[in-house]
Write a structure and sequence with these properties.
Shape of chain C: globular
Helix content of chain B: under 10%
CATH superfamily of chain C: P-loop containing nucleotide triphosphate hydrolases
Radius of gyration of chain B: 25 Å
Number of helices of chain C: 7
Largest interface: A-B, 38 and 30 residues
Number of domains of chain C: 1
Distance between the termini of chain C: 29 Å
Helix content of chain C: 25-40%
Strand order of the largest sheet of chain C: 6-7-8-3-9-10
Shape of chain B: elongated
CATH architecture of one domain in chain B: 3 Solenoid
Chains: A mainly alpha, B mainly beta, C alpha/beta
CATH superfamily of one domain in chain B: Single-stranded right-handed beta-helix, Pectin lyase-like
Oligomer: heterotrimer
Strand content of chain C: 25-35%
CATH topology of chain C: Rossmann fold
CATH architecture of chain C: 3-Layer(aba) Sandwich
Order of helices and strands of chain C: EEEHEEEHHHEHEEEHH
Chain lengths: 255, 400, 235
């Protein structure tokens, strides 16, 4: 681990924002597990909060961090270090800090109350979502020049994946409800990292059987071993593509 | 007329009489045939006398996958107990069974074990009989078409089906044209279609049974005056799977049952004047799905806990009464302190209406947009049926 | 040696550097002057690879800097305003830059660091430092690796007079070692003893680039400020 990663990580972990985030996750998780004596239900309640909070915090915090470190990044750009290494180091540091906050804040309570496949899946999914939205925030920050626009972009990305995307899909469903659109909808919803994470967790809890998912498209398409591999592949693509795009933009960026 | 000397006839490889058929041939009314341990492959045994057939040391009657094993016809007072039956013939034309009883009465089939048969116990045209304490296990992996029912009753009355354990058949217990009968303390698990199935049967009751992981727990169709008390419906999960399916039935009572983790707790279609009271609905996908074809049903004094959807329906006009239940999702207040919420509760969520029309919308279950939709619907109801409402929702769960 | 040929840079419609060609040889100390928005900072940033010119070539020691970053090993840079991560200590900042430069603190040029007395503040967090102290950190970083080329953007802004003097002494000392030094400043008076050449930019054009002695000779003035004023009158 190079020192940029090391010291930027330490810098972020010392900041009150990330500590607050960690503490918030920690208390929320313990609170929910203590309210529900049923752990599956606890995981499901938590899922809603995580799908809401993790993308939001990852996006906004990463964006603000990058803009606040503007001059520092400029100083480093003037140093004998390749820009690719610089941006990947900062990305590694920011995402490492947020993933650490997530794993400590949410992972510990989850593993205490649900030390099983679902718990583990939950933590992995949360960590992947953190990486995805940090990487989207990096892309957004690299292509915008001022902070206000950058934060606006971050909020838009969050709104888009959390609400707008599903809203559009619902509209499509209403418009074309007379056509066989099941497969299309499932494929389209799997393009959204938030949707696919939710579905991934749901099909691995008994909740899916309860909702009559089992015989239907869901289990066949996404519930199999192959389906899980496909879902993880999609999530990883969502990490890699914006990161590469951000690196390419950063290499050519004027400071 | 009582026989003067009731005799005991022993059957075994070491006895003078080695086959059950032989014993039946020489037996008189009132005799007891004791079948000792061993495997008996006797094709079809037919009993037309008042005989007690007792198994001792686990005798096995084997139908070799070809024959109906035991047939009882036109007789009263037969007892079949302590035998193991296995491998009856399979025929979709002849309904072959391990034990078939036709046009008889006052018989008792008890404590038998019936394995890998087409139908296990098949009763037609009988009355006043009991089937108790039998262990019945069907052929694993068969589908609905090639498997028969566990306990199959056709045109009977005054039957008592109790304490049986039935698994792996098409229907665990099947009633067609059966009147005035009781089904108690049975355990029906993992049957391919239904745990218990009523067709055209009136004035029956089933009490204290457990229906677990069946294609559907219980189906009551085209039947009137069925009483359903203290049963446990659990883990009946899957696409179009129910704890209790009601179709074209009138005047029944559903009381003191527990519905737990079923895809749909109770499904009602073409159902009239049913009382659903004092039941507990826990963690079902849908607690109650009531189709628009249902009228004058009363759903009162039930407890609803942690169901994804409490009530769903396919129509906009609802002529049923949902008052006085406890709903854990109710967030109203009780300023009058009379234990009844001051604001009505609407147990139907907007999203359940959406799924009703577009099933694939269930990809959005538990998503943020659904939460937003349901919240906005709570404030301004627009799509959900206006009169499906609990005007007196309880603040605390009903004590059970 | 720095060799810049026909460099152009536009930001959208704004043409910030117009066909600049300049050569800076060893042992020269150049004052980069010009009014606000004349392209000084853009020029420096092009040299540092922070901006990529639209056209033209920049060579340092006969090597094009395009697509390269290693050439910056021989450049020390002090930005106008240095800002650092709030929770990082001075020590960590040095540590990080030292690692990037693959140098140990023991073999680095710590003269300035000692003169400023920064070692005593090593465990302080950057967020708690005053503007002046932060500038001292930036200055130390620029000289730390005994670079062949030193670029200073408004070096004395925000420094107290004593520290300014220390820095100026250091600049003179380095120049005497044969290094190239590039300074921008608004305070012309402080450049008097520091520079050997003056580059003057206006609206993206290089107005002139000459040795100080030649300019003094031409104008008959001594101090940099007077030299500049009198030249600007003639233009």
């Amino acid at each position: 681990m190079n020192k940029i990663v090391k010291y930027v990580t330490i810098d972020i972990l010392k900041s009150k924002v990330v500590l607050t985030y960690l503490l918030f996750l920690f208390l929320t998780c313990f609170g929910i597990f203590n309210l529900d004596n049923n752990t599956t239900k606890g995981i499901l309640s938590l899922l809603n909060i995580i799908l809401f909070i993790v993308p939001l915090v990852s996006l906004i915090y990463s964006t603000i961090y990058i803009f606040n470190s503007g001059e520092f990044i400029e100083l480093l750009v003037a140093q004998p270090i390749s820009r690719k290494k610089l941006i990947t180091s900062i990305y590694a540091a920011v995402s490492l800090s947020l993933v650490t906050a997530f794993i400590v804040g949410a992972g510990i309570p989850v593993l205490i109350y649900s030390p099983d496949k679902i718990g583990l899946l939950f933590i992995i999914t949360g960590a992947l979502l953190t990486l995805i939205f940090t990487s989207l925030a990096f892309f957004g920050s690299v292509i915008t020049r001022d902070k206000a626009k950058g934060i606006g972009m971050a909020i838009f990305i969050w709104l888009f994946f959390s609400i707008l995307y599903d809203g559009i899909l619902l509209l499509i469903m209403f418009q074309f409800s007379d056509y066989p659109i099941e497969k299309l909808i499932i494929v389209l919803s799997s393009f959204n990292p938030v949707d696919i994470s939710r579905i991934l967790i749901l099909i691995h809890t008994d909740y899916s059987a309860l909702m009559g998912y089992s015989g239907a498209l869901f289990k066949e398409f996404l519930g199999s071993q192959k389906g899980s591999v496909v879902i993880f592949a999609i999530l990883i693509v969502w990490i890699i593509v914006p990161t590469i795009a951000a690196i390419r933009k950063f290499i050519r960026k004027d400071f | 007329m009582l026989p003067l000397h009731a005799e005991v006839i022993n059957v075994s490889g070491r006895d003078k009489i080695t086959t059950i058929k032989n014993a039946v041939d020489i037996a008189k009314d009132g005799d007891t045939i004791v079948v000792n341990g061993g495997i008996y492959k006797e094709k079809n045994i037919v009993i037309k006398k008042k005989i007690t057939l007792l198994g001792k040391n686990n005798p096995v009657l084997d139908g070799e996958g070809t024959y109906e094993i035991l047939t009882i016809k036109d007789v009263a007072g037969v007892v079949v107990s302590g035998l193991t039956f296995q491998y009856s013939g399979f025929s979709s034309l002849k309904d072959l069974a391990a034990i078939k009883v036709i046009d008889s009465r006052q018989f008792l089939i008890t404590k038998n074990t019936i394995l890998n048969t087409h139908f296990a116990i098949y009763i037609a045209g009988c009355d006043n009989f009991s089937i108790t304490y039998n262990q019945i296990r069907g052929v694993p992996g068969n589908d609905e078409q090639t498997t028969g029912n566990g306990i199959h009753l056709w045109k009977n009355s005054y039957a008592k089906i109790a304490n049986n354990n039935i698994t792996g058949h098409r229907d665990g217990i099947y009633f067609e044209f059966v009147q005035h009968s009781t089904i108690t303390d049975n355990y029906c698990k993992s049957n391919i279609r239904y745990g218990l199935h009523f067709m055209f049967s009136n004035n029956d009751e089933y009490i204290n049974n457990t229906f677990e992981k069946n294609g559907a727990g219980v189906a009551v169709m085209f039947s009137n005056n069925i009483h359903m008390f203290k049963n446990h419906f659990l883990f009946n999960q899957g696409e179009s799977t129910y704890g209790l399916l009601l179709k074209e039935i009138n005047d029944g009572i559903i009381r003191d049952n527990v519905f737990e983790q079923n895809t749909i707790g109770i499904y009602l279609e073409g159902t009239n004047r049913i009382d659903v009271t004092n039941n507990k609905f826990l963690r079902n996908g849908y607690a109650i799905r009531i189709q628009a074809s249902c009228n004058n049903n009363n759903v009162n004094n039930n407890n609803f806990f942690e169901n994804t959807f409490d009530v769903a329906t396919n129509g906009s006009l609802v002529l049923n009464n949902f008052n006085g239940n406890f709903w854990d999702k109710y967030d109203g207040y009780d300023l009058k302190r009379d234990g009844v919420g001051d604001v009505p509760y609407r147990p139907i969520s907007l999203f359940s209406m959406v799924i009703e029309n577009i099933p694939v919308a269930s990809v959005f279950l538990r998503s943020f947009i659904v939460f937003l939709l349901d919240q906005s619907e709570k404030i301004i109801p627009s799509i959900t049926p206006e009169n499906l409402v609990d005007n007196t929702p309880l603040i605390k769960p009903v004590k059970m | 040696m720095i060799d810049i040929k026909n460099v152009n840079k536009k930001f959208g419609k704004l043409h910030v550097l117009k066909d600049i060609s300049v050569q800076i040889k060893k042992s020269n100390s150049v004052a980069l002057l010009g009014p606000n928005a004349s392209g000084k900072t853009t020029f420096i940033k092009c040299l540092l690879g922070m901006l990529i010119p639209d056209s033209g070539t920049i060579e340092i020691n006969n090597q094009s800097i395009k697509g390269d970053y290693k050439y910056r090993n021989i450049i020390g840079y002090m930005p106008q305003i240095g800002r650092y991560p709030q929770n990082m200590t001075i020590q960590q900042v040095f540590d990080m830059i030292l690692e990037i430069r693959k140098t140990a603190l023991s073999s680095a040029d710590t003269e300035l660091m000692e003169a400023f007395g920064l070692k005593a503040l090593f465990s302080k967090r950057m967020g708690t430092l005053s503007g002046g102290t932060t500038q001292k950190v930036s200055a130390c970083l620029a000289f730390l690796f005994s670079p062949e080329i030193i670029i200073l953007d408004e070096p004395t802004a925000g420094l107290d007079p004593l520290s300014s003097e220390i820095l100026k002494e250091k600049i003179k000392h380095e120049r005497s070692k044969g290094k190239i030094i590039l300074i921008t400043s608004h305070i012309l008076s402080e450049l008097d003893e520091l520079v050997s050449e003056i580059m003057y930019l206006r609206e993206g054009n290089l107005v002139f680039h000459s040795g100080i002695e030649e300019l003094q000779h031409r104008t008959g003035e001594k101090s940099v400020s007077k030299v500049i004023t009198s030249i600007l009158k003639t233009l």
